[in-house]
């Protein structure tokens, strides 16, 4: 197929990748994005396995690799801010992986999309979606009405497209026990390509420094068996919740709470997976976190978003009709998404986010092992998730 009109909802990793490859495959693509611009900043994320092939084919691999944060140092602190353990991330990564600030990746993808002259509508979002016999009619919040052959929901865990098409979010989400808030603060420790971490049972404070010497990405993560209900756009309620959870905590926490109070832009969310029986309905399809969020604990979300979006565009190109393309997209992509979601059962997130005293003890043992490993030991100690690689044309040689 080609010459079909497609509306992509969302301009993050999945949306930009989808738009790029749909355009490349002969489709007329428009992106609609709620924000006023492509979002910058953000914590470091990974591009791994088969996603490496895709960014190479998009011509942005060299740019991403130049900003690679691999071999970041992690310093574990005590309550007096003394380093009690340290390690690098090389023991947990493949040497082809690219670790990069989230905003740098989205801007590289956006640049590739701009070069294709793909239309992007900012400050807007889908208000209604009505299925037609051979397509979809949409109305945006701005009042723009238009018909498309296909709508792609690439609008994240809290997908508006999914809600309008399949129903309320809580029907498709699985809470994993952590809540986190992220924000930017002054780099008062003069860090560079490193992180400092202070944990008490169920509460962790982290500062990530990339190559920007002026600021760091700060995170306050807490564990809670019951998912708290907080409106995701109510910043003051977020701050109040986090400050209550971290009051009377030592280490770097007081500095982070001061910065949190002053911050006007924070990101609050829960560690959540999206699990759905079907990703498509009535010429509307979901991709990326909207369809199969694995949670940030897996470190696979960005790569899965890139891979799934490429496969979706490729299936739409190669099949004779939309129904067959969407069916095969799910058939190919679902096993990879499900395996990565199930990997959380054996995940090692307690190293960074211990939920209780038992996990604090377990973390101490693991950190001692990491410190005592030689480079050769680390290379032999396979902590790489082989499910990053998918058997699919152009993606199977990682």
Automatic annotation (TrEMBL):
A single Pfam family, by name? FAD_binding_3
* Provenance organism: Tetragenococcus halophilus
Where in this chain does the record put each FAD-binding domain?
5-321
Its taxonomic placement starts with:
Bacteria, Bacillati, Bacillota, Bacilli, Lactobacillales
- Protein known as: Oxidoreductase
What domain of life does the UniProt record list for this protein's source? Answer: Bacteria
A GO molecular function held by the record: FAD binding
């Amino acid at each position: 197929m080609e010459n079909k009109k497609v509306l992509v909802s969302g301009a993050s990793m999945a949306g930009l990748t989808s738009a790029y490859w749909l355009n490349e495959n002969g489709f007329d693509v428009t992106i609609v994005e709620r924000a006023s611009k492509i979002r910058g900043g953000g914590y470091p994320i990974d591009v791994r396995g088969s996603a490496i092939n895709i960014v190479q084919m998009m011509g942005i691999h060299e740019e991403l690799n130049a900003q690679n944060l691999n071999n970041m140092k992690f310093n574990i602190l005590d309550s007096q801010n003394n380093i009690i353990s340290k390690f690098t991330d090389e023991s947990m990564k493949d040497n082809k992986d690219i670790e990069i600030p989230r905003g740098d990746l989205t801007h590289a993808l956006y640049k590739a999309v701009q070069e294709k002259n793909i239309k992007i509508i900012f400050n807007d979002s889908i208000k209604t979606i009505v299925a037609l016999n051979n397509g979809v009619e949409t109305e945006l919040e701005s009042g723009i009405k238009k018909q498309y052959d296909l709508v792609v929901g690439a609008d994240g865990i809290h997908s508006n497209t999914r809600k309008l098409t399949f129903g309320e979010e809580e029907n498709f989400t699985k809470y994993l026990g952590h809540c986190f808030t992220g924000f930017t603060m002054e780099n008062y420790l003069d860090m560079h390509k490193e992180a400092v971490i202070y944990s008490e049972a169920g509460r962790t404070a982290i500062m990530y420094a990339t190559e920007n010497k002026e600021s760091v990405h700060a995170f306050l993560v807490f564990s809670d068996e019951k998912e708290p209900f907080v409106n995701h756009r109510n910043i003051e309620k977020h701050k109040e919740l986090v400050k209550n959870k971290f009051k009377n905590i030592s280490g770097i926490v007081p500095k982070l709470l001061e910065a949190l109070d002053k911050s006007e832009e924070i990101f609050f969310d829960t560690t959540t997976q999206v699990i759905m029986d079907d990703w498509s309905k009535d010429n509307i399809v979901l991709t990326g976190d909207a369809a199969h969020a694995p949670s940030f604990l897996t470190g696979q979300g960005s790569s899965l978003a890139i891979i799934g979006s490429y496969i979706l565009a490729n299936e739409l190109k190669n099949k004779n009709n939309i129904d067959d393309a969407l069916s095969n997209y799910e058939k190919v992509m679902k096993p990879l998404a499900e395996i990565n979601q199930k990997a959380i059962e054996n995940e090692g997130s307690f190293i960074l986010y211990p939920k209780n005293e038992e996990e604090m003890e377990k973390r101490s043992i693991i950190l001692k092992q990491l410190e005592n490993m030689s480079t050769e030991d680390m290379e032999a100690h396979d902590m790489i998730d082989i499910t990053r690689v998918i058997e699919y044309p152009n993606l199977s040689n990682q």
